[in-house]
Design brief:
about 475 residues, two-stranded antiparallel sheet, Alkaline Phosphatase, subunit A, alpha/beta, globular
Length: about 475
């Protein structure tokens, strides 16, 4: 069939955007995403979001990933070191890696006070009073280590097992492996600060060489949840139906001559998903239906905590509605990056994020969702025990603390140790690849068997052939010995 105009020209002159094309499904196509062959257009589709069968029964069904951009300081939050006070101002006996200007090999005590909390006796600083109250629900890993001291490379490593871009992030891998329960919402949703991106931007939810269907979908936490979803000037139903039918024919003709173009196929899939989202997403993200008590729990009544609390509450509602993976980021930039003033800088970002994160755990627990939801709190690396600019700390790839909750991670567990200065992890060390392998296991996935062919090799979420990643069974209630 010879078309008188190109598909691109037709889209341009008709004024149709994603939202207008998307309403086709609402007007009666009745198609599910990922059908191997479309019943209406015979468009072959690469991949789908239908729920998959797991390799074995998983403890968890969903993941909420709380990314703490900037590198939270382990010895000022979760890993107090008395030797820093005892030897304050003296050099680290073995020296430390110096990366930034004004970094001096002089040990810096924490300016923050610590207390022991919960039956587990976890150490938490005064910066995180809300987290301190829920430590018995959390699984702390004090012995994390990574491979780079720069922010972007560290974030890439945390999410993909490689310091350079070009690999899919954890959320994309899990979406690819498991699909999603709710076919009216994406498998992987990103909730970022509406005022801007953190360091790395959209790279933090990239699908890389996986089909584009599995990348993170940004939802806004201010105004309309999804930009450009609804047409600015709706047309009468009959007119729009005819136009959309014709555009679907153009799509079919366009893609039929381009087999294997996954981005094109995924784009058509996303059009249809967008159509279904027009009804589902506004309902799921309407926080006005939450009680005043719940809104206060997340800090929505306080300007300092409201934005992050809103994202955490939306994350709960999304997993409750069947979304597989939700990523929540902090305020723009790298707000945990405290080179000049640990105490003042940390107080700002800690106040912003502490209440919402703790409320999320409490709320999931009260609703019976925590057992089936993994919550992960992590930055890209830790900080040095020595001083920079007199009051701050430089980056440290050798040790940092993260925590998990729910999804079969042992509550109230303190795992691993760092040396007496908090510089290096020394006992029960956990790599980023081990962490990703363990999350996959809790989702019912063997990280070695989740594979995608790329450049002549079978890639895996943990890059197992390079990293030798293993599941850390001691972190789990369902103790495992699987490698």
């Amino acid at each position: 069939m010879m078309l008188p105009i190109s598909r691109r020209e037709m889209l341009g002159i008709s004024g149709f955007g994603l939202g207008q094309l998307a309403v086709a499904d609402l007007l009666g196509t009745g198609r599910l995403p990922g059908a191997e062959l479309s019943s209406r257009t015979s468009v072959p589709v690469h991949g789908n979001l239908r729920p998959r069968i797991t390799h074995f029964p998983g403890k968890a069904k969903a993941v909420i990933q709380l990314i703490q951009n900037g590198g939270p300081s382990q010895m000022d939050l979760f890993d107090p070191k008395p030797m820093l006070s005892k030897l304050a101002g003296k050099p680290h006996p073995d020296g430390v890696e110096i990366h930034q200007p004004n970094n001096v090999n002089a040990l810096l005590p924490s300016p923050l006070k610590f207390g022991k909390y919960g039956e587990c006796g976890m150490d938490v600083s005064e910066a995180l009073p809300h987290t301190a109250r829920i430590v018995d629900d959390l699984c702390f890993i004090r012995s994390m280590h990574t491979e780079h001291n720069n922010h972007l490379e560290g974030l890439n490593m945390l999410l993909t097992c490689k310091i350079f871009p070009g690999r899919p992030v954890m959320g994309a891998w899990i979406s690819y492996a498991l699909g999603t329960v709710n076919q009216n919402l994406p498998a992987y949703v990103v909730l970022r600060d509406p005022d801007g991106y953190t360091v790395g931007g959209q790279q933090l939810w990239a699908n890389a060489y996986l089909p584009a269907l599995y990348q993170g979908v940004e939802f806004s936490t201010r105004g309309a949840p999804i930009h450009h979803l609804n047409p600015a000037n709706p047309l009468p139903a009959g007119v729009q139906r005819a136009n959309l039918d014709f555009l679907q024919e153009l799509n079919a003709a366009h893609v039929s001559g381009r087999p294997g173009e996954t981005e094109l196929e995924s784009r058509i899939e996303n059009f249809e998903l967008a159509a279904r989202m027009q009804l589902e997403a506004p309902r799921v993200l309407d926080l006005s239906s939450e009680t005043k008590t719940t809104q206060k729990l997340y800090g929505l009544d306080n300007p300092k905590t409201a934005k992050y609390g809103t994202r955490c509450l939306m994350a709960r509602r999304l997993v409750e509605a069947g979304v597989r993976f939700v990523q929540v980021t902090t305020s723009p930039g790298q707000p945990w990056d405290h080179h000049k003033d640990i105490q003042d800088g940390m107080s700002k970002i800690a106040v912003e994020t502490d209440q919402g994160a703790a409320a999320l755990i409490t709320d999931l627990n009260e609703r019976g969702l925590l057992d089936s939801t993994i919550v992960m709190w992590a930055g890209e690396f830790g900080r040095l025990p020595t001083t920079q600019n007199g009051l701050g700390r430089d980056h440290n790839r050798n040790a940092f603390t993260i925590w998990f909750a729910g999804g079969g991670f042992q509550p109230g567990l303190l795992y691993g140790e760092t040396d007496e200065f908090g510089y290096k992890s020394v006992v029960d060390r956990v790599s980023v690849a081990d962490m990703i392998a363990t999350v996959c296991h809790q989702m019912g996935l063997d990280h070695k068997r989740v594979q995608f062919p790329h450049n002549g090799r079978l890639e895996t979420p943990s890059d197992v052939t390079v990293t030798g990643a293993k599941v850390v069974g001691d972190l789990l209630t369902n103790q495992v010995t699987q490698a």
